[in-house]
Amino acid sequence: MTNLNAVDPAAVAQDAHLESADVVIGKNTIIFRRFMRNKTAVAGLAIFLALTVFSFVGGYFTQWDKQTIDPFNIGMPPSAEHYLGTSQAGIDLYAMTVEGTRISILIGLIVGLVSVLVAAVYGCTMAYFGGKVDKVMLFILEALIMMPALLVVAVATSGGGEGLRRDLPSWLLLIIVLLVFSWMGTARLIRSLSMSLMQRDFVKAAQYMGVPARRIVWRHLVPNIGSLLVLDITRGVTGAILAEVAFSFIGIGIKVPDVSLGVLIGGATSQVQTFPWMFWVPLTVMFLLTGSLAMMNDGLRDAFDPSSSSSGSAKKRTALKARVKGNAS
């Protein structure tokens, strides 16, 4: 019968060596290890990276593109020649899915990263200067929040802005519009957190020493809200992808000849019974994208949380050490 109180001498010796050597593990290393111990988060990261690679190199595995029409295979199901079938116009669905996935990922990454960066700078600036500067910037922020985003997107991409639509591709125009409306909520949250940081001794000491405001914001305020920014990036990418799909689905987002997941889903909605592959393929890709980002977000949240239970083998080793000390006593 196995003795439950038995311990692994090698593990105990390794722990003793680490303690005697005063090994200090950096915060970033701890966060990385916590994230990698979360199998769900790692699976989400793998799925997202796989879809990103597919969107950039998948076009090299087929002879068709999003514009070439195959007159001999119109509305055909998946086959050896057309991996995911063709549309009712004879265009290869695989090529359109590759292009649509790439556009949706680009929109998500650009909007998610840039909006969080803008929110961090804007919110920290409001908190640092305070007073009249804070009131004016807060008024601008509230005014932007009150603007109807749906109406502005519709005017910019459909009803007006002929010059912009002629000079810019529709997906780039949609990125610009989404950037205008995607950072305000995060900026308000960062402002409140930064105002509490302004009362800390290290920030006051930097002010008394004459450190420039720009350096205080970048060196003291932004790093101390880094965990919030990382989580907001993943949420921002997910929100941008869903916004693109929603706007394109109702016809005010990306316009043909540009292709995105929203365009493919919206164009195939009325033909689910006739051409089911045209609807379910882009819908599945969208679910994989947003689902993988949600899995990554949960993993990052646990990794940044000091009280997280995602400690894996490290927690087991701590329990083992405690058991050894108890037996020794």
Task: Describe the structure in your own words.
- This protein is mostly helical.
- It has one domain (63-300): Orthogonal Bundle (MetI-like fold).
- 72% of the residues lie in helices and 0% in strands.
- It contains 15 helices and no strands.
- The chain has helices at 9-20, 27-37, 39-57, 93-129, 131-146, 149-159, 162-167, 170-181, 184-197, 201-208, 213-224, 226-249, 261-268, 276-304, 312-328.
- Helix 4 packs across helix 12.
- The chain is elongated and about 75 Å long.
- The two termini are 25 Å apart.
- It holds the Pfam family OppC_N.
- Belongs to the binding-protein-dependent transport system permease family. OppBC subfamily.
- It comes from Pseudarthrobacter scleromae.
- It is found in: Cell inner membrane; Cell membrane.
- Keywords: Cell inner membrane, Cell membrane, Membrane, Peptide transport, Protein transport, Transmembrane, Transmembrane helix, Transport.
